[in-house]
Design goal:
It comes from Noviluteimonas caseinilytica. By secondary structure, the protein is of the alpha+beta class. The chain folds into 3 domains: 112 residues, Beta-Lactamase; 60 residues, no CATH class; 156 residues, Histidine kinase-like ATPase, C-terminal domain (Heat Shock Protein 90, 2-Layer Sandwich), CATH 3.30.565. The strands form 3 sheets. It has a 5-stranded antiparallel β-sheet. Strands 7-9-10-12-11 form a 5-stranded mixed β-sheet. Helix 5 runs antiparallel to helix 6 and helix 7 packs parallel to helix 8. The termini are far apart.
């Protein structure tokens, strides 16, 4: 079994893949369980034959324009079964030819659109990684503490070692949440610029002189209500994506927005955070799927960063959107101001 197949077996989301002929070449354990057969029995079955009724799969396989499509509420069953299961299905082309097929059972997301959610399967997959990462993180923190003693008289050295320690603590807390899920900690009023300054420090350490980082802040902004660690992680994901896209200039801009509708709620005041870069931009073929898990424009990318960033925005009753062309990409995070949230004037 390949490393990729083993990784897919950690997921609880049904996933299968086909060859160029449209026949199943592999499936993870969750897919086999969901269809009620063994993964071995799925081998060689035409993908179109798994559709209980209709021809959505057949049309998607024959129409290149439907590459990347999300097929809604498709009835699926192993040939010969009389009990279909319904799922929203995402299809994407494989580099080697054929298709990736990701099924989100409809009954797992009652009343919600799975394209807007970070699947619970993601958490399950990350738990295995969490166990492997805790020991290296502990070693990094110990090394940073020892180094701090050696640079006690160097202000810059102290600042950098403190940054390493704080980031290790943040990542350790994230791993703890993955291993032992607990209710989210209460949100607190915070200045969004404190979050952005922390992100900029990380970017300076990561990119060095290769990237010009620009602050374009409105200093009069009110606080937002949120989790500083989650917002740091979300914003850092956006900035790091810009760095990986080859940006030479990255601007972090903040502004106030009045009478802003986020989802179904009208907010008297919201904070707009923009991450602007001059990198390669979002690949056109990924434009409609960029916030889905496991979708990445980088060969070495995990495809998790933007999905997590969008999830954090939603946790804070905000939104994340983007516009992009080569040389100019803007990711826009909207967050309700703390005053509106605290006084209940945002319509909730």
């Amino acid at each position: 079994m390949s490393d990729r197949a083993l990784a897919f077996d950690l997921l609880t989301t049904p996933i299968a893949w086909t060859g160029a002929d449209g026949r199943v070449e592999g499936a993870n354990a969750a897919c086999a369980r969901w269809l009620g057969v063994s993964a071995k029995r799925l081998m060689g079955v035409p993908l179109a034959a798994l559709e209980f009724e209709g021809d959505a799969f057949a049309r998607a396989l024959s129409d290149p324009a439907l590459e990347g499509a999300r097929l809604r509420r498709i009835p699926l069953a192993f040939p010969g079964s009389d009990a279909p299961r319904f799922a929203d299905v995402a299809l994407s082309a494989r580099d080697a030819g054929g298709w990736w097929v990701e099924a989100h059972p409809v009954d797992e997301f009652p009343g919600e659109d799975p394209a807007q959610l970070l699947p619970s399967a993601l958490s399950a997959a990350l738990k295995g990684l969490a166990h492997e990462l805790r020991n290296p993180l502990a070693g990094l923190k110990g090394a940073a503490q020892l180094l701090a003693r050696r640079v006690a008289d160097d202000a810059t050295g102290r600042e950098l070692t403190a940054l390493v320690e704080s980031e290790v603590d943040r990542l350790t807390a994230l791993l703890d949440r993955l291993l032992s899920p607990a209710p989210p900690r209460p949100f607190e009023p915070l200045n969004i610029h404190v979050v952005l300054e922390r992100v900029l420090r990380l970017a300076e350490t990561d990119a060095g002189w290769a990237v010009r980082l620009v602050r374009d802040y409105d200093p009069s902004l009110p606080d937002v209500l949120g989790d500083p660690d989650r917002l740091t992680q979300s914003t850092w994901n956006l900035v790091r994506n810009a760095i990986e896209a080859g940006a030479a200039n990255i601007t972090l801009r903040t502004r106030a927005e009045h009478q802003v509708r986020i989802g179904d709620t009208l907010h008297p005041l919201a904070i707009r955070v923009e991450i602007v870069d001059d990198g390669r931009g979002v690949p056109e073929e990924l434009a409609e799927r960029i916030f889905l898990p496991l979708v990445s424009g980088h060969a070495a990318g995990s495809g998790l960063g933007l999905a997590l960033a969008q999830q954090v925005a939603r946790e804070h009753r905000g939104s994340l959107a983007y516009r992009s062309r080569p040389g100019h990409t803007v990711f826009t995070l909207l967050l309700p101001s703390w005053t509106a949230a605290e006084e209940g004037t945002d319509g909730e």
